[in-house]
Structure formats: structure tokens, C-alpha cells
Specification:
This protein is an alpha/beta fold. It is 41% helix and 19% strand.
Length: 494
Amino acid sequence: MKIRRIGIDTSPDNTAFLLRTGNGYSPEQFQALRKIEIGDGSVTILATLALVDDTGLLGKGEIGLGEQAFRRLGLPEGTKVSFRQAPVPHSLEHVRRKIDGDSLDDNDIREIIEDIAAFRYSPMEIGAFLVACASFMTTQETLALTRAMADAGRRMQWAADIVVDKHCIGGIPGNRTSMIVVPIIAAHGLTMPKTSSRAITSPSGTADTMEVLASVDLAEDKLIAVVEQEHAVLAWGGRVNLSPADDILITVERPLRIDTFEQMVASILSKKIAAGSTHLVVDIPIGPTAKVRSQREAIRLRKLFEYVGHKLGLVLDVVFTDGTQPIGRGIGPVLEARDVMAVLRNDADAPADLRERSVMLAGRILEFDPALVGGRGYARAMELLGSGQALAAMERLIDAQGRRKEVLKPGEFHHEICAPHEGVVTMIDCHVIARIARLAGAPMDKGAGIDLLRKVGERVRADEPLYRIHAHSEDGLGYASELALATSGYLVTP
């Protein structure tokens, strides 16, 4: 069979396409080959099989490969390959034992993760593993899972002895501190190769917001060159093969809404270890609509981070922060980028909460520098921000990654949600605000989102605007406004 590239995005799965008839196979044989192994003798991949009835898409003697499968196989179009039914992974026996309530050892978990990273599992089998782990998981299993996930892909190495990073566990809209922290740290001279994900369930991720200003889709050699030149990077992590099993697991976790502390720790720390980090600050926001709702939960999560991190050689500083309301004013890529640059420029009207949190986190990272006098991290961060050195570092970073030529603006369609009566804003529901921003079109439409006009503690008059929804289409504005009118996400107490 000859390879034919099929322009279909099947991310993250490998998918192969075969004509149902005409190649000497019966439909029954096709149905048996749900997972096939494809290769030319030198390289092979595993792919899920899809049958094709349209002869305009494939011809006889051709096997089609979706974009992911074609890229991963790495052979030119037209290359002759063979295929066969893929054997059932032996590690599925370990999954069945986990379902039955057994604890797995390090080798069991390593086999499972290696098979997942090689696309030997179907989504249903991955879901079974995740649900079984969500039922119970020991700290030793969490450690083994983290180590196996980090080892399953590429591990980056840097010349610096100290390689710093930060991670917020998420759930707080507008919390775009990384884009302020990274240039502060770069201006100081520490190495901070910050690879971030795109948004999955939030209105924007760090990569989505940075993309408003510069290219984030950097090939590995480009990413390394930027770090060597600027001490830092703010890039999308999807182009480098860091903890690939985690990316696969996430695609199943999200629809099932599985987000246990154990899986969260394994996901975050495996990515940081694979990225070459040696020192890490973890931000855990606590609030009634955040991922972590109480101090007790936060302490349990902190201890798990510390246990796994220290076992794997990471120096960790876990910080509890206020998660009771969104950070900054903008929610959505363009609006968040506006806030970030306002803080870096030291604008008088820059969001004070975003500035203060960013400086605090940068200060905690700077405390890792043995050359800095203990306790001076915060003051040093303030100095670098206030003097304009952080802004200069950000401008150099944008140019090094590739400055965006087009200036993106907030969506031209907008609608204001107003206070139902006079009173004080006593609560903002982070989850509802995020949903409204996503319905407006964020993060795919960069200018879509929400501009917060009032925050918790502020007094408002009846019919005074609480926030403004931006969208690039009337439909997006309509969907978001409909939800906002049903449940605004704000509680105004008389």
C-alpha cells in the first residue's frame, strides 16, 4: 500500500483510512483491524482505522494518513508500507487490576504510560485507567505516574545550573501572571523556559494571550535559540515532545471532568521535569468557585506536590493565593494582553491586583537565586518592573519569538451587563464568568471576552455596568449575553 496524506486533523490520535472494498479484504476483516500497525520496516506507528466509501478520497492500493499520523510516521507521500493488526497491549492487564482495586507498582505504571504515549490505547481504555485511578491512588503511584510521564517523551537540558518555572493550577480567569513574571526573571538573568498550554476549558491560556503579541508556535531549535539569547521563552508547549502521554490523557480527562489532585500533580510536574526545570513555584488559588475550595484541600495538595517534587529532585515553593474573584480586568486573549502590557509599562491605570500578584510570584522565584540576599526577591522584582527593565526584556522576547504584525483589537460587538440594584459587589463566580467569555468566542476569537468594570468590594448603583462582553460576531455576543442575563456571575448585596 502507498501512503496518501489526508488533510484531516485527528489530534491527538493517529488515524489511518482504507477503502472498504477493492483491496482484497472483506468488511469483516476491516472491522477486526480497529488498531493497526503501519510501517516500512524502519519506522512504524499505531493508528486507529477508519473505513472510507468515497473513492474520490482514496484509491485502490492506498492507505490514507491523517495529519497527525502522517507527521509522526515521517515518511514521504507515496512510500510503500505494510500494515497489520496491532497486538493488544499487555499493560491492559494492569489496568484491569487497578479497576479491581489493586495498587500498581512502578513497572506496571511505566508500561501503561509507554503504551498510551505510543497510541496503543483507545479513548475508552484510557478512560478506564483514569476512572480507576480517580477512585484511589497512593502517593507512590502518583510518584511513579509522574516519573513515567516525564520519561515517555523528550527531556530538555539547559546549560544553567538553576532553571526556574512557575505554574498556577488554574481556574481563575484573567490570571495571566506568567507574562509579567517571565520578563522580570529574564531581566534579572535567571533562565526561565516557560512552555504553556493553550486553553482547554478556560477563556485563554498563556500561549493564547502571548500569541496576541508574538509567535508561540516555535520549533524546538527556535525555542532553544530564544532561551539562549533572552534567558526565557513564552511558547506553546505542543510543538515540543514534552510528556506526550499527558497531552493524550488530558483529551479524555476533560470530557469526563476528571481532575483529581493526583492526576493534576502528575500532569504539572511531569511537564516541568521534561522541560528541564530545577526550581518551581506553584500557585494554588483558593476560593469558593476555584479548583481548590478550602485551606484544608490546599494543604493536602501542597503536601502532594512537595512529596512528588522532592522525590524527583525539584526544588518547590508552593504559594496559596486569593482565588475568590478573577484577576485583572480583561478575560480573553486581547483583553488579557492589554492588561499585561499595561502592568509592564507601569501605566497608572494598570490592574493593581495583577501587578501585585505577578511581583509577589516573581519575588518568590528570585529567592531561588543564591546570589540574591535572602528576603530581597520581592524588592528586586519591584525594581526590575518599576525601572522598565522587565518591559525591555518583554519587547526583546517578542522580537525574538516573532512579533505579530497585525494589531488585534477587542471584538467590535459589545454588550454591558448592569447591576440589578444599588449595593456592594460581594462575589464574582469565576466559573460563570469564564463560561460567558467562552460563549463570546474566546479564545479562538482573540478579541472576544469580558472587560470587568467592577470587582469585589466596590459599590455600584442600580443599572451601572458591571462588565462589558466583547465578541467578533453578533451570534457570539448573543450566546454570551443570553447566559449573562440568566446568571450574571455577580452577587450585588444591598
